[in-house]
Amino acid sequence: MCKGTADCGRITGITPTKRIVEARPTIRPELRSAPTSVLLDRCWVVVRTWNYTPLAADGMMGMPFMGYAQLFSERGPHRIGSTYRKALYREYTDETFSKLKPRSAEWQHLGMLGPVLRAEVGDTIKVVFKNNTTHPFSMHPHGVFYAKDSEGAGYDDGASSADKSGVPPGKTHIYTWEVPERAGPGPNDPSSIVWLYHSHADEPKDVESGLVGAIIISREGMAGPTGRPKDVDREFVNLFMIVDENTSWYLQHNIDTYTSDPKGVSKLENSPSDHEGNFSLFGSGFAFVNFRSSINGFMFGNMPMMTMKKGERVRWYVVTICAQCAWKIELQIYVPDIEHRIVQYWHE
Length: 348
Description:
By secondary structure, this protein is mainly beta. Helix content is 8%, strand content 26%. The longest helix is centred in the C-terminal third of the chain and has 8 residues, at 251-258.
């Protein structure tokens, strides 16, 4: 389901979920009547310090930040630099939310993305969600089915549920999402496809603050013991996104914390020129510099290396989301270039 201003896209990828309960949940007529699995994930919204350039260098060019790149990496009287406070989805292994589930080396490239939730057609996904921040947040999925109390999106429909505008800080909510056949791969699709989930309490501000993740849905019978499709050896997930930190819930905190003259910062400062005074679409003012062209929350080639081995069957999910598409859609178009290779791709 797609509401508000978010771009509706499919997406993907994490450590696999564990099938913990075999059950026959109540199923809508559209769903198959065969036995299904209930897949449980524990997801906590946490506040984290996020660095867009953890290598402290231009990894793409193999050199220190220079010229225009310095505008996005260096702190100053009226510049935040590359480190921001963000709200992120993170997965825990126990009901007390005290044991963070570590990410394996092959999934470190996920960066700021939340855990990848996995299911087969016919399964039911159950997410125990706890909000450990200072703002109401939620989890709104695309592609799957849900009852009203598991929609995670508030709008003017006459409903009056307590968490209609997001799960309040410190509170817990259980989301239950059914996976019908129409949520899975079609006849011409590969064995798995992806959908997006994100917070929808205040959609633009929530997404720009960092709350976005993916769901991988495999064709019935095609998920292996780890949740990965049986015909795939390795998966990569890349979210291409221009993050607008000007819209984040934490903009003022970032100004107060990371600039040396917070009172002198003009949030509306726009200068349509680069560091050399030439015209630039993004410019060099405070507001322009807070637009972060990133992959999984990393800039300038700072994302952990995605490594594959010769002969492996690799599925690469490339997605994007635009929380304020009315004006940003044209700027959100990327053309990933994979040189000298034949790539089979799927697009919706």
